[in-house]
Amino acid sequence: VFGLSSVAQVVLGRGDFGQHLSINLGFGIGVTLGIHAAGGISGAHLNAAITLTHCILGNLPWRKLPAYLIGQFLGSFTAAATVFGLYYDALYDYTKGNFTVTGPTATASIFSTYPAPYVSLLGGFFTEFMATVMLLLGILIIHDEKNNGALKGTQALLTGILVLGIGLGMGMNTGYAINPSRDLPPRLFTAIAGWGMDVFTAGHHWWWVPLTAPMLGSLAGVLIHKLFIDFHNQPVPESGNEKGQPVVETS
């Protein structure tokens, strides 16, 4: 809701109610609050690529994968519907009732990502791949207690800042989906709500890239972290009697 509504305000406000920075801030704030809301219950994956990666690594049972994906899908789809209702009058005024994916009054990009006109399919795929690599690396570093992990209670804020940083540095080419759960459900919503099947054919059938590139980028991010950081971490010191020294109890 925070992310999509910030895009809506920039597009429909014709630049008078925010710029690229405000979109990145909106998504960063949304991620931060989402982690606070669901972190203690489910780990707050919020991202199908991260959930699938945890299943592959054995950190999450495969039987839980459908529940996570359904929750992510419903959350993202409902967010798109909410923003559509919130800004319906502005959408109608901006487009004169003609909801299009491309053109001078295109509005489909409010809900899902589309590549810039100059970006090739390969270039867009690599952008999404690398942005997701940086996302996973950042998340793993923030939660790495064997290294220089974040202070307890700051992980959600730092993850939101991480998403903000990715948007600031890698958002121009593709709008940085970095998350199949963030991109496909709103795309389905727009197909139903009046934009039609053009949402799947635009950008040389772009729709499949935000699904596959983040999956591969997530796995690559974990591999890089394992090879260059985790394997070299020092083990966490165990509390208690170390090296045979007596344990002194204090009141």
From TrEMBL:
Gene3D superfamilies: Glycerol uptake facilitator protein. It is a multi-pass membrane protein. It comes from Spizaetus tyrannus. The chain crosses the membrane at residues 67-88, 118-142, 154-178, 205-224. GO terms for cellular component: basolateral plasma membrane. Signal peptide: none annotated. GO terms for molecular function: glycerol channel activity; urea transmembrane transporter activity; water channel activity. It catalyses: glycerol(in) = glycerol(out); H2O(in) = H2O(out). It is found in: Membrane. The keyword Transmembrane helix applies. Belongs to the MIP/aquaporin (TC 1.A.8) family. Keywords: Membrane, Transmembrane, Transmembrane helix, Transport. This is AQP7 protein.
